[in-house]
Write a structure and sequence with these properties.
alpha+beta, eight-stranded mixed beta sheet, 5 helices, 15 strands, about 15% helix, flat
């Protein structure tokens, strides 16, 4: 039985299958070298390069018109160029039996455009306008004219002063009495029932909202008109007074001309309750004061805190074609008090303030001077 081979490390060595023993003196074959690594593949990077900008197409040079076609002769030489056949003299054409050539027609030059004139739009003013044009005179003539005017003015003043002393003094000064307008009666003036007036106000979109005290209807340039005085009770015993003026009443679409509202009367100190407020009895007057075809409405009302001896706030308004003028005052009724017109008296139509102030004194009190 063959003995096992013991290696250098003290462990038995496996023998080949054919039973041969390895030669310990044989040189072990050199191990095979590993294959050389393959070189890395080059990395190919693709970059999108922008396309070069397209070159702009060259514009063809403009062909200038031939300006020598109509050039005049210079020193006996003709500086001109021609296109087409050269024109032959008429003698040569006559020998050839041809008709003479017509002379070339030159284009008519455009008419010059005149700058627009500030007054006449660029047209010729004509001899009449030139004759009437004002010319600035010389300075000496201006001084002579001023001096002559002063002399004439001085003569007129002396004549007026001498005539005022020797004549009637009553005719020298104008009268300061205000114009008293009598006016014309409103056309077809009639009182309207409260029910009919309420329906007309609702039709115009101006609901009464209270008790209609009085209402009147008339005709003028605005058609058929209606004015209504309305009394509306509020809280704490207060009263709101309202005046509504309509026109175009006879049409299907009446219009609101003016609405005046004086709320929560009377305005007592400290907001106390009580007092009274009402329209003046017989205080509404409708009349065409200046005869212009539009009737004026005059309506007044007053309010008071306490008894009759206390001062009242009295107001009298005039409505004319939608415009309002009013006199406000404070004083004891049927005695005297202070008033304030709005707007100022100089802004009232002529004669209107005199008529309204006269009516104010009749209804309420005499204004203090």
């Amino acid at each position: 039985m063959p003995l096992p081979m013991i290696g250098e490390d003290g462990l038995p060595v496996d023998l080949p299958a054919d039973g041969t023993q390895p030669n310990p003196l044989a040189v072990a074959p050199a191990p095979e070298a590993p294959p050389a690594p393959k070189p890395p593949k080059p990395v190919i990077r693709r970059v999108a390069a922008p396309e070069p900008p397209a070159r702009p197409a060259k514009k063809p040079k403009p062909v200038l018109p031939d300006r020598n076609a109509y050039a005049p002769p210079q020193n006996g030489d003709i500086w001109a160029t021609f296109s087409g056949p050269i024109p032959l003299p008429d003698e040569v054409l006559a020998e050839r039996g041809q008709a003479p050539q017509a002379p070339a027609t030159r284009p008519t030059p455009p008419r010059p455009v005149l700058a627009p004139d500030q007054e006449g739009g660029g047209e010729d003013p004509g001899p009449l306008k030139k004759f009437l044009t004002v010319q600035v005179p010389e300075a000496r003539f201006v001084l002579i004219g001023i001096a002559g005017g002063l002399v004439v003015l001085l003569i007129v003043l002396v004549a007026l002063l001498s005539g005022g002393k020797n004549g009637d003094p009553s005719t020298s000064a104008p009268s300061s009495k205000p114009t008293d307008l009598t006016g014309d009666a409103a056309k077809n003036l009639q009182e309207v029932t409260k029910v009919a007036a309420s329906k007309t106000l609702q039709k115009a979109g101006a609901n009464a909202g209270g008790t209609i005290v009085e209402a009147w209807q008339w005709d003028d340039k605005n058609g058929t008109n209606l004015v209504a005085a309305v009394k509306v009770p509020t809280s704490k015993g207060k009263t709101t007074l309202k005046v509504v003026h309509l026109d175009k009443v006879s049409s299907n679409d009446p219009k609101i001309v003016r609405v005046m509202i004086d709320p929560d009367l009377p305005q007592c100190p400290g907001g106390k309750a009580g007092g009274q407020a009402a329209f003046s009895k017989g205080g509404m007057k409708i009349q065409d004061l200046n005869g212009d075809g539009y009737a004026e409405v005059i309506v007044g009302w007053s309010s008071r805190c306490g008894g009759k001896s206390n001062p009242s706030e009295a107001k009298l308004a005039l409505i004319t074609n939608g415009d309002k003028f009013i006199i406000r005052g404070s004083g004891v009724l049927k005695q005297s008090g202070d008033i304030a017109p709005s707007p100022a008296t100089k802004d009232w139509p002529k004669g209107f303030y005199a008529a309204v102030s006269k009516r104010y004194a009749e209804l309420f009190f005499t204004p203090n001077k």
